[in-house]
Amino acid sequence: MQKAVELGSLSTSEADQLSHGEALALMFLPGLSTKSGITELSGRGVGMDVVKTNISRIGGVIDVHSELGIGTKITITLPVTLAIVRALLVRVGSQVFAVPFASVAEVLILETRPRIVEGKEVLSLRGTTLALCRLSQLLRIEGNPSSGKKFVVVAQVGERRLGLVVDEIFGQKDVVIKALGRSLAKVKGFSGATEFDDQRVGLVLDVAAIVEEVWSSTESRTKALSYG
Amino acid sequence: MAKLALQTIEEESRRDEGNEFLSFSLAGESYAVPLASVLEIVVPPPLTEVPRAPKAILGVASVRGRLLTVVDLRVVLGVEGESPPNKGRLLLGRGPEDELMAARVDEVDQVLRLPDDQVEQVALGLGADSTEVVRGIGRPGHSSSIVLLDLGAALSRGTR
Q: Which residue of chain B has the CA closest to A186?
């Protein structure tokens, strides 16, 4: 409290009237530290201010309860509104991607050799024809195409279905989607990225954009064929 | 009086800042960017390639929870030669539209103080392209030479 008065953020008379809670809240003031000297790590009065600012920025609340001689409890309450999405983690080559569950209809093991229709690979699935798209080709990912067994993630966007061929399926996970920087806005096929436990970043596939891309390329080719 | 002295110190430090550069190496060559344009230097976290991104974009990485686009300065500058693997540093700076981005360099060297008479402006006509990223040539101690870059312009160029 004395420090806050020294900093000029509080007058002496105000300091006398502070409640216990108000006094604790002083720790979030920028530039205020209980330390008198500066070490490599602490003493600048930055830490708690940064914590509070960032928690407030995402709509969270921070509470402090402290009793002399007993201890201090800091409660951080965060909103669940961060974009958390259930996703299927798949491997293509050496890269792991997240496919949002919302656009996954089912997952198959690619057992039979796909047929070729009009230059495109297709699969018969319970009486319907499913167009396939090898993600390694679409995204031009090289290397490590696995022991041979491949999987098909059947993506459904509206009425359109597309089988995305991947090398491995790791299972599902709740992921927090973060937006890619504007510097990558021109790169199509990804709706964002997510951070895995090991600090690695995995890209989240923009399934709608991929389906659109594959369909429009098919359409233009069909047109070219009929005109040719 | 004390106030005046303080003002002078502030002015002086501001003037110094304009002449302070952070030097680093890239494929064996020395470069420098204005120190004020470098927000942070970090050890590169695991990098994830972004398929179909421009060639100069190495990928994305998470620096304390923030997703950053990482640019390869070698590609931006058209420098040949290998960078030592598993080494390097990221220089964080502002790219186009003020976006926080990272530029990968091989090794951060030191902070250079270059008085105006040790900075040569680059003659126009070195190629319209290089003038926006290259700001000049520094001659520390009037001897060796070091290429002075504009970090923001380099990051912008990397995204094209």
A: B53
Contact A184 B65 (CB under 8 A): no
The pLDDT tens digits of the residues spanning B61-77 come to 999 889 999 999 999 98
Assign a CATH topology to domain B20-158: OB fold (Dihydrolipoamide Acetyltransferase, E2P) (2.40.50)
Cβ <8 Å between A184 and B67: no
pLDDT tens digits for A136-177?
999 998 766 656 789 999 999 888 899 999 999 999 999 988
Which residue in chain B is spatially nearest to A190 when comparing CA positions? B50
Smallest Cα distance from B56 to chain A, Å: 12
Task: Transcribe chain A into DSSP letters.
Answer: -HHHHHHTSS-HHHHHH--HHHHHHGGGSTT--S-SS--SSS-SS-HHHHHHHHHHHTT-EEEEEEETTTEEEEEEE--TTS-EEEEEEEEETTEEEEEEGGGEEEEEEE-SPPEEETTEEEEEETTEEEEEEEHHHHTT--S---SS-EEEEEEEETTEEEEEEESEEEEEEEEE-BPPPGGGTT--SEEEEEE-TTS-EEEEE-HHHHHHHHHHHHHHHHHHHHH-
User: Interface pTM (ipTM) of the complex?
Assistant: 0.79
Q: Which CATH class is domain A84-227?
A: mainly beta
